[in-house]
From TrEMBL:
InterPro entries per record: NA-bd_OB-fold
Protein's name according to its UniProt entry: DUF35 domain-containing protein
Species name: Anaerocolumna aminovalerica
C-alpha cells in the first residue's frame, strides 16, 4: 500500500505555516486564502505526551501513547507515539506517516478505509 503524506500549508500572502489546513490564514494581520502544500515529516521534538487506556471499540491493544511535537519549522502536530518505553518530553523523534486505524464503512458492501496519521518513532 502506498504511504500517505502529511502536509503543512504555507500562506502565500504572509508565509505563516498552518497544520492542519485552514480556509483563511490564522495570522490576525492577514486574510490570505491561498496556501502552498509543504511535506511535513522528519525530525521533531516531543513537547508533551499521554497514555490512553480507555480506547474506543476496534482498538485491539491495552493502551496507546499520543504526543504533541514541534517540527524544526515551528509547526506543532499531534500523533501516536510508536513505542512504549523511555518516553520523555523534550526528546527528539522522527515523524512518519502510517495507518493509525482502519475505518469500516457499511453500505451496500463493506469497505475498509485506512485512516492515516503521524506515528512518532525514536530518532
Amino acid at each position: 500500500m502506498e504511504m500517505e503524506q502529511m502536509y503543512t500549508y504555507k500562506c502565500t500572502k504572509c508565509g505563516k505555516l498552518h497544520h492542519p489546513r485552514y480556509i483563511v490564514c490564522q495570522n490576525p494581520d492577514c486574510d490570505g486564502r491561498e496556501f502552498e502544500k509543504i511535506p511535513l515529516e522528519g525530525k521533531c521534538r516531543l513537547l508533551t505526551w499521554t497514555r490512553v487506556y480507555n480506547l474506543p471499540e476496534g482498538y485491539m491493544c491495552p493502551w496507546l501513547n499520543f504526543g504533541i511535537v514541534e517540527f524544526e519549522n515551528g509547526v506543532r502536530a499531534t500523533g501516536q507515539i510508536g513505542f512504549d518505553e523511555g518516553i520523555e518530553s523534550g526528546m527528539e523523534l522522527i515523524a512518519t506517516v502510517g495507518i493509525v486505524k482502519e475505518k469500516t464503512i457499511l453500505y451496500k458492501e463493506t469497505v475498509v478505509a485506512p485512516q492515516h496519521g503521524f506515528i512518532f518513532q525514536k530518532a
